[in-house]
């Protein structure tokens, strides 16, 4: 699958520090010090509607990680998926009377445009669920060889208890797992399952649903096995960070890890697990099921500067839950205008301290709000010196700060 175009990534004259990141599985901060290429897998969209701010919040957050690693001198292999066949997509296509392939292609293209506008660095591996089916079949066969797959009618299920580490990533008690499993696409009540938490890996063909040939009969992949197979193929085991929204902690990331760890005994799926908070709107978590969505494309079509959208996201720490409001966006529009005014002066307050402070903030668990505050301090100092810059300013400051804003925060001003 084709990703979106890569924006220019300027090289900084200084190297950033190593990145420390909060790890969901250990419930603490861990320094990420990749040996060789840093591996990042971020779970993608199910393309049955346009990109909303909840999506954008997650992808901008881990774009900061991608950038911080590169600024620290690491090569990065970023892998990303699109779940371009799944129940919500098929249901949406049926509801609106559109072919599901056409719907998936249209919304995936809109997603590409949104990510490009927000200057999110594209993945090196961008894989759709449909094209991952051969990978899924191979992984299911490996799980069968491990004795971890069984049939319920014509469907195949994965026994979560086959993974001795099951539950370590999320740290949740079983009652909470069962509740979340039911809420997030699981089927704990299905008769014939060995354990209510066992996950579907191959759904046998149903009438009027797409299906593909396999050694198990015609059908299509389960959700968790798709991401597990794509990540394993692109990054192998023990890659640096598995990431996504906090609603993926369980069951998605827990079961993805289980699939791979059973297929590859003694190997860990990912070194760290990192999760972005949820974005609310009108008092509820922003979600397609509730219909309380703010779309990136709608704001772009209303001539809102994408850099103001990105800045609004950066003003919230990636792990926090927060509420989107129009007032925040309009404040960011004004801030972007002010920052451009300062950068247009040609000289400003000394750049070295602000560059170092911003890189340090982002290396400290992606603390974008502190980085934004530090830039604002530099802007205030620079604008306050207007009229007597020749005597007390850095003549190269604006170029250095503009380069840093682009490389570290993804803000091209």
CATH superfamily annotation of the domain at 302-409 = Anticodon-binding domain of a subclass of class I aminoacyl-tRNA synthetases
| N-end to C-end Cα span | 30 Å
- Biggest sheet: strands side by side, in what order? 5-4-3-10-11
Q: What's the CATH class label of the domain at 302-409?
A: Mainly Alpha
| Overall number of strands | 14
What string gives the helices and strands in order?
EEEHEHHEHEEHEEHEHEEEHHEHHHHH
Query: How is the CATH topology of the domain at 302-409 named?
Result: Four Helix Bundle (Hemerythrin (Met), subunit A)
Helix share, percent: 40-55%
Structure overview:
The structure is a single chain. The strands form 4 sheets. A 5-stranded parallel β-sheet has the order 5-4-3-10-11, with helices on both faces. A hairpin with a 2-residue loop joins strand 6 and strand 7. Residues 386-392 have low confidence and may be disordered. Helix 9 packs across helix 10 (326-343). The protein has 14 helices and 14 strands. It has a domain at 302-409: Up-down Bundle (Four Helix Bundle (Hemerythrin (Met), subunit A)). The protein has 413 residues and is of the alpha/beta class. The protein has helices at 53-71, 87-96, 100-117, 133-145, 174-183, 223-235, 249-263, 296-301, 306-314, 326-343, 351-363, 368-384, 389-392, 397-409, and strands at residues 19-23, 28-32, 38-42, 76-82, 125-128, 149-152, 155-158, 199-204, 219-221, 239-245, 270-276, 279-281, 284-285, 322-323.
């Amino acid at each position: 699958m084709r990703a979106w175009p890569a924006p220019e990534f300027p090289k900084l004259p200084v190297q950033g520090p190593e990145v420390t990141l909060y790890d969901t599985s250990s419930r603490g901060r861990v320094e990420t010090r990749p040996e060789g290429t840093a591996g990042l897998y971020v779970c993608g969209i199910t393309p049955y509607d346009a990109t909303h701010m909840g999506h954008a919040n997650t992808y901008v957050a881990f774009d900061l990680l991608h950038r911080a690693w590169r600024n620290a001198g690491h090569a990065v292999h970023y892998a990303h998926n699109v779940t371009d066949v799944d129940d919500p997509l098929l249901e949406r296509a049926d509801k609106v009377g559109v072919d599901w392939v056409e719907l998936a292609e249209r919304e995936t293209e809109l997603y590409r445009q949104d990510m490009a506008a927000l200057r999110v660095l594209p993945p090196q591996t961008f894989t759709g669920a449909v094209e991952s089916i051969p990978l899924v079949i191979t992984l299911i066969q490996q799980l069968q060889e491990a004795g971890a797959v069984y049939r319920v009618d014509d469907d195949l299920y994965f026994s979560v208890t086959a993974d001795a580490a099951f539950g370590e990533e999320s740290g949740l008690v079983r009652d909470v797992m069962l509740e979340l499993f039911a809420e997030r696409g699981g089927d704990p009540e299905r008769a014939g399952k060995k354990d209510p938490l066992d996950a579907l890996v191959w759904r046998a063909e149903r009438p009027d649903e797409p299906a593909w040939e396999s050694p198990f009969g015609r059908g299509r992949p389960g959700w968790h096995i798709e991401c597990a197979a794509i990540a394993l193929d692109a990054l192998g085991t023990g890659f640096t960070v598995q990431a996504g929204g906090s609603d993926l902690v369980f069951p998605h990331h827990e079961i993805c890890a289980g699939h791979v760890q059973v297929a590859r005994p003694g190997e860990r799926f990912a070194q760290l697990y990192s999760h972005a908070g949820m974005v609310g709107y009108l008092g509820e978590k922003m979600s397609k099921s509730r219909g309380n969505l703010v779309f990136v494309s709608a704001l772009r079509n209303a001539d809102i500067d994408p850099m103001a959208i990105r800045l609004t996201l950066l003003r919230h720490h990636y792990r926090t839950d927060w509420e989107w409001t129009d007032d925040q966006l309009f404040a960011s529009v004004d801030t972007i205008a002010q920052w451009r005014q300062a950068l247009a002066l040609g000289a400003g307050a000394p750049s070295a301290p602000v560059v170092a402070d911003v890189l340090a903030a982002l290396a400290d668990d992606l603390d974008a709000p502190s980085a934004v505050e530090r830039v604002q301090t530099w802007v205030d100092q620079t604008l306050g010196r207007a009229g007597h810059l020749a005597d007390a300013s850095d003549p190269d400051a604006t170029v250095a700060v503009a380069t840093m804003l682009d490389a570290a925060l993804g803000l091209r001003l």
